[in-house]
Structures are given as structure tokens and as C-alpha cells.
Amino acid sequence: MERSRIDELLRVYRAGLLEDVVPFWTRHGVDREHGGFLTCLDRDGTVLDTDKGVWVQARATWLFATLYLAVERREEWLELARGGIQFMRAHCFDTDGRMFFQVTRDGRPLRKRRYVFTEAFGAIAFAAWARASGDGRAAEEARALFRLVLRCAREPERLEPKGVPGTRPTKSLGMPMILLATAQVLRATIDEPLADECIERCIEEIRRDFMRADVRAVMETVGPNGERIDHFDGRLLNPGHALEAAWFMLEEARHRGGDAALVETATTILDWTWERGWDAEHGGILYFCDVHGLPVQEYWHDMKFWWPQTEAIQATLMAHLATGEERYERWHTLAHDWAYAHFPDPEHGEWFGYLHRDGRLSVPLKGNLWKGPFHLPRMQLYCWKILERAQAGAPHGDTLEV
Amino acid sequence: MERSRIDELLRVYRAGLLEDVVPFWTRHGVDREHGGFLTCLDRDGTVLDTDKGVWVQARATWLFATLYLAVERREEWLELARGGIQFMRAHCFDTDGRMFFQVTRDGRPLRKRRYVFTEAFGAIAFAAWARASGDGRAAEEARALFRLVLRCAREPERLEPKGVPGTRPTKSLGMPMILLATAQVLRATIDEPLADECIERCIEEIRRDFMRADVRAVMETVGPNGERIDHFDGRLLNPGHALEAAWFMLEEARHRGGDAALVETATTILDWTWERGWDAEHGGILYFCDVHGLPVQEYWHDMKFWWPQTEAIQATLMAHLATGEERYERWHTLAHDWAYAHFPDPEHGEWFGYLHRDGRLSVPLKGNLWKGPFHLPRMQLYCWKILERAQAGAPHGDTLEV
Predict the structure, then answer these.
(1) Residue closest to A303 by CA, chosen among A291, A315, A285
(2) Which chain B residues have a beta carbon less than 8 Å from that of A108?
(3) Interchain proximity B168–A110, CB inside 8 Å
(4) Residue of chain A with shortest Cα separation from B365
(5) Would you tell me how many other CB atoms lie within 10 Å of the CB of residue A233?
(6) Counting beta carbons within 10 angstroms of the beta carbon of residue B212, is it exposed (0 to 12), middle (13 to 18) or buried (19 or more)?
(7) Which helix or strand (DSSP H or E) is residue A195 part of?
(8) Are A156 and A170 in contact (CB under 8 A)?
(9) Does the structure show a pLDDT above 90 at B151?
(10) In the Cβ-directed half-sphere of B173, how many Cα atoms lie within 13 Å?
(11) Cβ neighbours of B300 in A, within 8 Å
(12) Rg of chain B's alpha carbons, rounded to an integer?
């Protein structure tokens, strides 16, 4: 990548983060009355729904603590992270140590889900906060959540079963993919001793059970030992998830000072995913596709959500910087240009979240229980910092200094 | 409606039912090996997934038994209904009397849901079969399922709670709407003694708790006493459900020999729903909309599914025949023409199920766990028979003679 291109992209990501996306959420998404974050926002930032998703409470908390650590010691960001931690401590934990999924504005529980993804996002929030604030109790809370997720990942029978037990056990890419990223954050922030082993196990599980060279695909749902499941769910591919897995591995290779085998695995995932997930007709990354090209049952399969695009931008950029391969720079340009042509809202800032396949808007909202300040600012922060390191000739090491 | 138009439409619905839709499912959708129905079918009838949805097992069974009763005593249809009943008896009941939601091809349970809609569809299947076959045990099974649904409708705490209990209890239009139609089938087929009272209570509940004159809308989700819920879910309108409620009431008014107040309620629902659900820009009935016109959280809100269109065709036709109002004939023509221009597959028969807002195809499949031989052939059968009665100058009485 040419020096001038690096400089140009760096400016786009940094300015987008600090002058557009973060201000949008601090202006509209902070609950100054009850604490925590209001993320169900209309196009102009008007609150559409006061309910609070705990995923986004945790992810926003992680973001503000991480901005404080990796960008600058801005008191406002520390206070926003503190507000998220206080709201979660007061309202988002059930008596069994698990977290709720959705609570009312004032923190009364509405839903709890069988999955432990909320707890994984909670773990990164408490860990980043612990590092930013020096709050030792938060580090213990992060470790407890991480251990809870680890136990459920290794002994899924601890969780309420998804279906009738026994008939067709399955596991999803989401678990090792999210656990891998969670462990990376806990290692960087609170020096979690179980992180390295967890990361290695997640990588091995993805390689062994989810990657299928015969069909050049990363599966989303398989049997407990990677068995193929020839049903709608088992044939489903989720390119956004695969792209996240790819860049988490590229980040891990950087952490290890350059791990050629891991870069090879990550770029293989990226190659396979690009072949299937990139929409050659309209541009952008598709939400779902079928491994055999058969019809998909999920209704929104061909929509363009914001987050697979941000993951594609980041994965292709990191792959290019790790390998020097020209095609990753080309793919990065395609992903970046399509996303930036269709998602940003020039009038009110931030990105729309949900477009039709051809890029037309499906809904104008800026946030809901799932879309909050996470995928987009995370991409902007990582891409800015990784380009900064590229400028400095530092291809290895954790992207963020926390 | 002019006599020639009645004749023309009658031919379209009858021929569509008997020469297109029913043959598609008997040719491709019958599991000759394990019994029951395979409904996850690609465009040409190829099986995409062998899993069996119990909703569609029950609804297909109801359809074939009802065709036997209301069209002609065709042995093939009776045997298809028998196959559905045998498969459900053998494989679709849990030990607590509730039914599963999804089973494998050979009948091993995969999923059970907290809702009792499966049991309501089971009730109409066993009731229609009992009438068609004279199987007294089936009548008792139908009554037991109906009573189970009634108990859960009246004491929702019997069901596993949807969210954390107590914080924000809700109820949905689906329950009284489906219960109303279920009771109508059980009254007609097995002379269910609780049916009339149940029907009256469902109508009253919809009038009292779901219809809101101030905003001219039938709500989909309200509090236990009809309280407004100003959150995404509480603002959501489901025009297809409201259209079903409208024609179930029009059918009830016919059964009662013409009940002007009930016709008024039903046409009010239709008027309100048309104002909001008909897509003036592209045509067709939208899947979801927000009562205040705000963004909707469900991703497929602006898609055109097949079933709200069939319900619109039937509701507008019945409203026109009940009232003579010109606008219902006009709306019927709009709904009929848009659906028939976009959904039928001229090459392989039947209808596609899932279109984008502008009528472009989203997926080519003909069936899945939800789409099977039900909404489309039910509409064709009812519209044929109601037009036949209109030809005969018989505006009242149950549409189907079973």
C-alpha cells in the first residue's frame, strides 16, 4: 500500500471515529438520568425505545474505556465507561451470576438469553474498565465472567438447551470466535492467565471443526465434533462472523510477532469468505449464504448490514499489511468504497445499519438493541492504529496500546 | 360485484386449488416413507430440508381432510390426512400432552416452543380428520388440544414465560385471533360445546384490548388489559394478522345469519389495516409497520410474504360480499392483481413465498417450516366456495359445508 494511501485512510478512520461516530453517541446515546446507554436511536438521535440491550451496554463501556486507554486520557470517556459499569453492576446481573439480555431504562430485567455472549461482552467491558480505572474489583468481575463463558463453552450442557436435548446437538462459530476476541482483550488489559491457552484452543477448534477445505467455507453451525449438518441451519454461512474470526487471528499473529501459519489460516478464511460473501452484482458483504448455493431460510439473507462491512474493511486491511498481497488491498478498496458510499448519513452523522441488497435504505434508525457504538468505531480505531503502526514500520505487536 | 366477475374469480380460485396448488404438494410434499409431509421444498419441489415443522404437519392434515369434506370424497385426500394424523400421533406429542414444534424426518423431536399455536393447529387437524373419518378418538384428541390452548390463553402463567416474569407482561393478537378460527373449525366438525363462548370471548378481547380507534389500528402486542406499550414491540402492527382476524369475524357473522355489529367490527379492522398495510407505492401488503410510522426493528418489515396477500384477498372479498361496498371490491382487485402478478411460479406451479418490497424474488423456495399447503389453498378454497354461495344467492351460513 502506498504511503499516501495509508495517510489518506488513516485520516478517514481517525476523523470518522473522533469527529463523527463517538460524538454522535456521546451526544445522543448517554442516559444522564438512569446511567448506561440509550442505543435505540432514530436517524437524528431521537430515542425510539428506552429499553437497554446489555450487549450494547457492555460494548459501549468497552469502547469508552478503550478510547481512554488507546487514544487519550480524556476524562469524559472515563466517566462514560464508569457510568456503564455502574449501570451493569446495579441492574444487569441475575442472582446466578449470569447477565440479563435486555432491561428497562431504569434497569428492571426484561429478558435473559440462553447464550453467554452477553457475559463475554461484559467481560471485555469490566476488563477494559479495570485497566483504565485501576479498579481491582472490576478485574475480578471480568475474570469471573470470562470463566463463566469458558465453562459454558466447554460444557454446553450447563446452558438451557436450544432444542430438545440429544436429537441433533450443534455448536456455532460464534462461540470460539467471540471467546478468542474476549481472551485477547483480557490478556491485554488484566493479564488474564488463562487467555493464551483459551486463544490457542479457539483457533484450533475453528481450524478443525469449522473450516472445510473441500467446499472452501467456514461453517457457522456444525455438530459437536465438526460434523456436517445437511439442513438449513447447518448449510448456513455467516460471512460477517468468518471475517471477524479472520482478523482476530491476524491480530493474534501480530501479538506473536508474526505467526506465518496463523496468517495462512486467517487469509484462507478471508479468501473463502470473500468468494462467497462479497456480492459481485451489487457490492458489499451479504448477511447469509448457503454453502451449496441453495435457498436460505432467514428472510434478511441478502440484506447489507453495517457490521459485516466494517469487519470486511478491517480483515482485508490487516491481511494486506500482514502479507503484502495486492488482492487484499484491492478487496479493502472495494469493501471500504462500497460501505462509505452507502452507510454514512451525511446529515446527522454515524452510519445507517440496515440496507437492502442494492444499497437502498431499509430503516433509517442509527441504533437498536444490537447496533450501538461498537463495530463501526472499533473498526475505525483499529484501522487508524494499525495504519499508524504501518507508518512507523511496526508490523507486529498488539494493535492497541492499552 | 358483477356476475361475470364472480364467475371469472371462482374459476381462478378453483382451478388454482385443484389443478395447481394441491397437485404441487401431493406430488412433492408427501413423505411416502416415514409418513407426514415434507414442506421444505425448492422451487421445483426438490426437498431442501427433511425436517418437519409440526405447524405444517397439522395444517396440511387439516387441508386434506377439509378438501375431502368440502370438495369431494376423494380417497387420496382422506389417505393423506390419515398419514398426517398417524405421523403426529406417533411423533409430535411430548409426554406432557403438548406438541413439538419441529421434528426430524423420522419423527425425533428437535424443538418445542413456549407458544401453544402448534396445539391450536393440531386441534383443527384432529377435528377435521375426526369429521372426515368418523374416528371418535380423534375428536377427543382435538378437544383435549383445544382445552389445552384455552387454558394457556386464559392463564398464560402456565406457559414458560417469554421474558423475565413481572417486568412487562404482554399479550398478542395472535392468541385470540387463532383461537377464534380454531373454535370455528371445532364447532363445524365435532360440534365442540365450548366453541361459541370461546368465539364470543375472542371477539370481545380483540375489540376491547387490541382495537384502538384513536390511532385507527389493531395492535399486535399490548399489556394484559390492553395497555399501550411504547416500545418497538408494542408499536408494531402486523397487517396480515389483522386481516385474518377480520375475515374470521366476517365468517362468524355469516354463521350467525348476518350480525351487523360484527360485520362493522370486521370492516373497521379491514379499513384501518388497509390504510396502513397496503403499500401505495409498490402494491401488496407489508409485513410490519409501526403505529406511529417510526422505524421498525424487524429486518423483514417491508418484504412481501405470500400469506398477508392471501388474507387480504379473502378479507376484501368477504367484506364486499357482506356489505356491497364498492371500495372492498376495488381493494380486492388491487390485492388479487398484485399477488397474482408477482407470486405464482408459472414454470413449476404454486407460489413463491418471499418477495422484496417491490415484488422482486428474495428466495425461490416453495416451502419451509412455515410455508406449506395452508394459507394459499385455504384462501382458494374459501373464495371459491363463498363465490359459489354468492352465485346461489346464499350470503349467510358457514362458507364450507363439512
Answers:
(1) A285
(2) 167
(3) yes
(4) A295
(5) 15
(6) middle
(7) helix A195-205
(8) no
(9) yes
(10) 26
(11) 299-300
(12) 20
